[in-house]
Design brief:
The complex is a heterodimer.
Chain A: H1 8-31, H2 33-43, H3 51-70, H4 75-98, H5 109-115, H6 123-142
Chain B: H1 3-20, H2 31-39, E1 42-43, H3 45-54, E2 58-61, H4 65-70, E3 72-73, E4 77-78, H5 84-94, E5 101-104, H6 112-122, E6 128-131, H7 134-140, E7 145-146
Parallel strand pairs in B: 1-6, 2-4, 2-5, 5-6
Antiparallel strand pairs in B: 3-7
Classes of the chains: A mainly alpha, B alpha/beta.
């Protein structure tokens, strides 16, 4: 079967850029977890009891996957986890846009703080997350789960 | 000369009338809109500040909880229009139906305050007023906020 081959330079660049973004995003959520919980509550999808746990899980996942992508440790697993999360974010935002709800996206709060970009759910954040999903695909398909400092060690 | 005091009196009367008349005085330039607000049951900034200073009403923030968490009028409580049903039972336990309430949201274009006020009235709260200027007008005036 023919396999699409991406240049390793491209994979490295994607890993570093996306990894840094997820570190920033997960880090800021962990710094103010209460705020992120309130944003998740505004999605009106999860029961109130689950919200604190989901907020912590999402923030930790973003931070850890970001770190692992940057240091190229278990990149395939990390990018696959992020792919799943992106799919969930896209579905949740699309659902709420269709319901006519208006609220913060809870995606990249630092973008609104640094650049004044609006972070409300809508077509913009949905397209951005679809773009991230597409950019994560080459990493999930082609990068390895090797441990960089141990030659020959790879998780199957 | 008898004409002079008459002229002076007339001039004084004109000046006094000009300062009082809404059409002529800059002091009253905003009066028609303020009057319209009062007639529709909505509070002006000055009236809201007077209520705030005398602690004569309970302030309710109708914006989303995360927006309230970041910044709100000092002492206000959150009762968002989007999650009213979840937040209301707790609110009801703390506030008796006789409590005078002032509801606000972001600004005059935001309809959340009116929605929450309507729901509160429907639930039996008799003294509910809307501060339509909202947090934008309040913060521009430099009045107390927290978050």
């Amino acid at each position: 079967m023919a396999r699409i081959c991406f240049p390793s330079g491209l994979i490295t660049a994607l890993r570093l850029i996306l990894g840094m973004l997820f570190i920033l995003s997960g880090g800021e959520k962990l710094l103010d977890l209460n705020y992120f919980e309130l944003v998740i509550a505004e999605y009106q999808i999860l029961p109130s009891l689950l919200i604190p746990a989901v907020a912590l899980l999402v923030s930790l996942c973003e931070l850890l996957c970001g770190i692992m992508l940057v240091i190229n440790l278990f990149s395939r697993i990390s990018s696959s986890v992020m792919l799943c999360m992106m799919a969930i974010f896209i579905a949740a935002m699309t659902y709420n846009v269709m319901r006519g709800l208006e609220h913060e996206c809870g995606c990249f709060e630092f973008l609104s703080q640094w650049y004044g970009l609006k972070e409300e759910i809508g077509i913009g954040p949905i397209v951005r997350d679809i773009l991230f999903f597409i950019l994560l695909l080459p990493i999930a398909l082609q990068s390895s789960n090797r441990i960089p400092w141990k030659k020959g060690h790879e998780l199957k | 000369m008898p004409g002079k005091p008459l002229l002076r009196t007339l001039l004084t009367a004109v000046i006094l009338l000009a300062s009082v008349s809404p059409a002529l005085s800059p002091l009253h330039a905003a009066a028609p809109s303020a009057l319209a607000k009062e007639e529709s049951g909505e509070l002006t900034l000055a009236a809201t500040k007077a209520i705030f200073d005398t602690h004569s009403a309970y302030f309710v923030d109708a914006r989303s909880e995360y927006a309230y968490y970041k910044l709100h009028i000092k002492g206000a409580t959150s009762l968002s229009s989007s999650r009213f049903d979840e937040q209301y039972p707790d609110f009801r336990k703390k506030q008796p139906l006789e409590t005078p309430i002032v509801v606000y949201c972001a600004d005059s274009n935001c309809g959340k305050a009116r929605q929450v006020a309507k729901k509160l009235r429907k639930n039996g709260y008799r003294n509910v007023r809307v501060f339509s200027g909202g947090l934008v007008e309040w913060s521009q005036a430099g009045f107390p906020m927290e978050g």
